Known about the structure:
Radius of gyration: 16 Å
Order of helices and strands: HEEEEEE
Distance between the termini: 47 Å
Shape: globular
Number of helices: 1
Largest sheet: 6 strands, mixed
Helix content: 10-25%
Strand content: over 45%
Structural class: alpha/beta
Number of strands: 6
Amino acid sequence: MTLLRFLAATLVLSAFLPTSAWADAQVDRNGTGIITITDFDGTADDITVTTVGATRVITSPTGLLPGSCSGGGASVTCTVGTSIAA
Length: 86
């Protein structure tokens, strides 16, 4: 029963963590077409950017927040931009 209480408390407390706690970086695309990858923790991340048709697919095994793009978790998709900033 103690383990069940611990798991329940962990689940409830995790709801109060900031969204940056769930990923190491965030991906945004602004109105001028610049795709920006913002790091949260200052450590090196293994981030890959590929072009698939009219989209850029940004992946990271440590997790990404979609910002103004779509997806989240290990993969974020943005409309192709004019450039990429990190």
